[in-house]
Design brief:
0% strand; 57% helix; Cytochrome Bc1 Complex, Chain D, domain 2; 115 residues
Length: 115
């Protein structure tokens, strides 16, 4: 029985992937490259702006997920990016999904990552 528990814990840790990372890479990366501006601001730039405005994780997650759920020029903290790329469209994701992505963004340093 102990061996079974050890094996389960081992494989759970080996294959554990952050759900927010999966969601980000499956959706957001299409427009928001990690460090390059292409068709939208880089996720590095977005994260840095949000961290300056909302250094506490829960506030960061709440504001970002609420804004992405229903983008609004009046409540954007990145007016320059809206002028450069236009406002982000409504994507139809639910709040839980957006919070998972925002938590991943809060915890991930994109400054050292490629593309």
């Amino acid at each position: 029985m102990k061996l079974l528990i050890i094996v389960i814990v081992f494989f759970t840790n080996v294959f554990a992937v952050d759900y927010g990372e999966l969601l980000f890479n499956g959706n957001c990366i299409t427009c928001h490259f990690k460090t390059k501006k292409v068709s939208a601001p880089s996720i590095y730039e977005i994260r840095e702006n949000y961290l300056r405005a909302f250094p506490e994780e829960e506030v960061f997650v709440k504001y970002m997920s609420t804004w992405v759920l229903k983008p609004d020029i009046k409540t954007s903290i990145m007016q320059d990016s809206i002028e450069e790329f236009n406002i982000m469209p409504e994507l139809g994701y639910d709040e839980y999904t957006l919070k998972e992505i925002a938590r991943y963004l809060y915890k991930t340093d994109f400054s050292t990552q490629q593309k």
